[in-house]
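Format notes (please read before filing issues)

Several people have asked whether sequences and structure tokens are stored in separate files. They are not. Every record keeps both together, in the order shown below: the sequence lines, then the token lines. Line labels are part of the format and must not be stripped during preprocessing.
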Amino acid sequence: MSQDRLIKLACQDCKRINYRTGKNKKKVERKIELKKFCKWCKGHRVHKEMKK
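Then the structure lines:
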């Protein structure tokens, strides 16, 4: 995966970066929000796209 497609997902509760994933920036213009498991909060929380 190319570096310009990579984004970081951070937990909205503890603000830690837990996941890295890809995004098609031509088709998706808004910031991605996904409900993922946070190992520090020990539960499923909303993870939002962070700046690079």
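For reference, the curators noted about this record: DSSP finds no helices and four strands in the chain. The CA atoms of residues 8 and 50 lie 6 Å apart.
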